[in-house]
Design brief:
Structural class: alpha/beta
CATH class of the largest domain: Alpha Beta
Number of domains: 2
Helix content: 10-25%
Mean pLDDT: 92
Low-confidence stretches: 1-18, 477-494
Number of helices: 11
Strand content: 15-25%
CATH architecture of the largest domain: 3-Layer(aba) Sandwich
CATH superfamily of the largest domain: Alkaline Phosphatase, subunit A
């Protein structure tokens, strides 16, 4: 089963066909909660360039990721599909599909944001984290390609990178490396429409990378900062790991320094667009793959750092800022609920591409480009989430979380209980709203899931699973039975 797009029109919102379409600079950070940014209210961390980007564009206060970890969310942003459609259910492990002998691109059977733009005449460049397989060579139409061999980050200095098909150790600060290559790509392609995927591997917030010494420009700035914006809460019982990091000033200062390091990079990229007179015709998107708790509600980390796996707001809440002068209203904040799977149809619309899905898959996302222009839009505030054996639906007031092969199911009244500590599931007075949300959840996945990758109904996974024992799926890399063209069934024989 595949997804193809038929291009119906290529107009620039009423402009003549010969006018150059907007460039696209898509900036994605790694494990990054919006609460760390000044434009989202943080008083402690210096982010003047991202804050300025928000002043020049539109900021979404309630943007959400559809999954808790890196590879599935990135696959969703690039394809517009849910994990039960693209098959990437968990982050890719080291080696294997990324740089091993069976490495392959997890998205190879789909049209993606870069491949569609390249087909429409754009040149595409990646600088930063890919984490979607086949890392050694450019994928999806990219002709400029520098990335990491693996998805996880052990640190930001003396780390391995892939450039020109070879793995080497890079002594330079990785955040600066990605920025430098992004700027070079803009300079080299200023005369033609371009798509730049600037995928920082920071601020990250996990593992040994947070125990690494601060060596960027913010070492002295934050050396004695207390950062009260990081909650000092009691770890919740569901913490699987990282609960002891709540209030750890070494970790907090390192995470803050990496946020500010990224902000410096954003400022340099925006200055480059100004220097080459490209800023007025460049769509800039700033977002993250998924969020991260820094003590919020009693957690540190992402949704894979709890047992059972979770669908709490702190793991799905992401920053989203979009800027395109003349098309996106400036200095605006919107409170509508938007999803990362809405980005593909919205971006294509903004650059003048009208697309129509064909085949059996339907895009779950909605085009909110008219919202960006300040036009009236009939919009329902609802978001859907899927992480292995966990699915959830979130509305303005409520969240319903359901698990397969495991308990509990959960129901939260978010207006009264934003920390999601008071589970109302099973209480008779809330039975009606629970049933309504459950129907919406099942209807969504019944409409969109591809049986091949629908774990909840016997489908496979292209990746390992944290919850593999519940599904009876063995490691798909040995042998790789989950390539789109493979006939091997990785599930054990009954």
């Amino acid at each position: 089963m595949s997804l193809a797009f038929a291009f119906l029109t290529f107009t620039i919102l009423g402009a003549i066909d010969t006018e150059r379409p907007p460039n696209v600079v898509f900036i994605m950070t790694d494990n990054h909660g919006p609460w760390t940014l000044g434009c989202y209210g943080n008083p402690d961390i210096e982010t003047p360039h991202i804050d300025r980007l928000a002043e020049q564009g539109m900021l979404f206060t309630r943007a959400y990721a559809n999954n808790a970890v890196c590879s599935p969310t990135r696959a969703t942003v690039l394809t517009g599909l849910m994990p039960c459609q693209h098959g990437v259910h968990r982050y890719l492990g080291g080696g294997a599909a990324q740089v091993g002998p069976q490495a392959y691109n997890m998205l190879e059977e789909f049209d993606t944001l870069p491949s569609l733009l390249v087909e429409a005449g754009y040149v595409a460049g990646l600088s930063g984290k890919w984490h979607l397989g086949g890392n050694m060579t450019p994928q999806e139409g990219f002709t400029s390609w520098i990335t990491k061999p693996h998805g996880h980050s052990l640190g930001f200095y003396d780390q391995e990178v892939i450039e020109n098909g070879e793995i080497r150790k890079e002594p330079q600060y990785l955040t600066d490396l990605w920025t430098n290559h992004a700027i070079r790509f803009i300079q080299q392609n200023q005369s033609q429409p371009f798509f730049l995927f600037l995928a920082y591997n920071g601020p990250y917030g996990l593992g040994g990378a947070m125990r690494e010494e601060i060596r960027n420009a913010y070492r002295d700035t934050y050396s004695d900062s207390e950062f009260p914006s990081f909650p000092r809460t009691k770890p919740q019982p569901w913490n699987h790991n990282y609960g002891e990091w709540i209030g750890d000033l070494q970790v907090i200062r390192k995470y803050a320094a990496e946020v500010s390091g990224i902000d410096d990079g954003v400022g340099r990229v925006m200055q480059t667009l100004d220097d080459f007179h490209l800023a007025d015709n460049t769509l800039v998107v700033f977002t993250a793959d998924q969020g991260l708790a820094g003590g919020h509600a009693g957690y540190w980390g992402m949704g894979d750092h709890t047992r059972p796996l979770t669908a709490f707001d702190w793991t799905m809440h992401i920053p989203l800022i979009m800027r395109l002068p003349g098309q996106i209203q400036a200095n605006q904040r919107r409170d509508e609920i938007v999803s990362n799977y809405d980005l593909l149809p919205t971006i294509l619309s903004l650059v003048g591409l009208t697309t129509k899905p064909s085949g059996e898959l339907t895009l779950p996302g909605r085009d909110f480009s008219s919202m960006l222009r300040g036009e009236q839009l009939n919009w329902e505030n609802i978001h859907f989430y899927e992480f292995e054996n966990v699915r959830a639906v979130r509305t303005d007031e409520w969240k319903y979380i359901e698990r397969i092969h495991q308990s509990p199911n959960e129901l939260y009244h978010l207006t009264n209980n934003p920390d999601e500590h008071d589970d109302l599931y099973g209480q008779p007075e809330h039975a009606e709203i629970m049933l309504l949300l459950r129907r919406r959840l099942h209807k969504f996945f019944d409409e969109h899931a591809d049986p091949k990758w629908d774990l909840w109904h016997g489908g496979k996974s292209k990746t390992d699973l944290i919850t593999a024992p519940y599904f009876g799926i063995t490691n798909p890399y040995h042998p790789s039975g989950n390539r789109p063209d493979s006939q091997v069934d990785p599930r054990p024989a009954p």
